[in-house]
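Re: that chain you flagged

S.,

Sorry for the slow reply, it's been a week of failed gels. I finally had a moment to sit down with the sequence you sent. For the record, here it is as I used it:
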Amino acid sequence: MNRPAGHRSGVREVVAYNWPLYTAGIAVAAGAGALHGGLPPRLRPVARAAGAAAAGLLASTTLATWLVYDRSGLYGFDWLDTLLPGPPAAHLVVGTGLDEASVPLAARWPGSRQTTVDLYDPAVMTEGSVRRARRRVPPPTHALPGRAGALPVPDASADAVLLFFAAHELRCRAERGRLFAECARALRPGGSIVLVEHLRDPANTAVFGPGAWHFYPRREWLRLADETGLRLAAERRIAGLVTAFSFTRGAGA
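Prediction finished late last night. Pasting the structure tokens below so you have them in one place:
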């Protein structure tokens, strides 16, 4: 899970949520250096390579986190203007453990009726990073509990649905499909689903290494949209590592 919180440091927040991974990386890098001199000559290149790989991954991950979450305009939400035709009269924010969008969106669209749904289920979302994030940033009191296949909102009640670093936390393929179907059900004709995610692609793999396998490739999100009767209306890359999609529901859908 990757998140800066408002005016906090994005790097500090990400490290706090994922500290076991950072600790393991530092331990590998330091351990390889400490053990290098005492190893047989034939094993020293292996130790050097392991230490260099761990140090390089720590550096690239930290730099990418800083660029995306501390330096880009991701949390200014100005990029929404290129994905939506205008401020929605009503919008739905769906989270899966950590709500980082409802407050800034309420400020951005003060005339829009907002509904926030929290899908967090500790029995399903077992990753430690999610638990640590929720302890540090509890869900807002206005959030409604829900399930991927049962959002507590009426049909055709929102002009926009925002999934902000949320959908990838549903690790079951069927659950992601149910979520997209429910989001489409909540959309008014002509409405849009805005999906914001890191992708499992060369850029994210280069900086996050094996961690990029926690993300899904672009084709997965396009598949879900197609199976739900949505079409890709717009797509924008943010800071080179985050992709924002806008999927629309046609008037006859």
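What I noticed first: The beta strands are 90-95, 113-118, 144-145, 158-164, 187-198, 231-238, 242-248.

Talk soon,
D.
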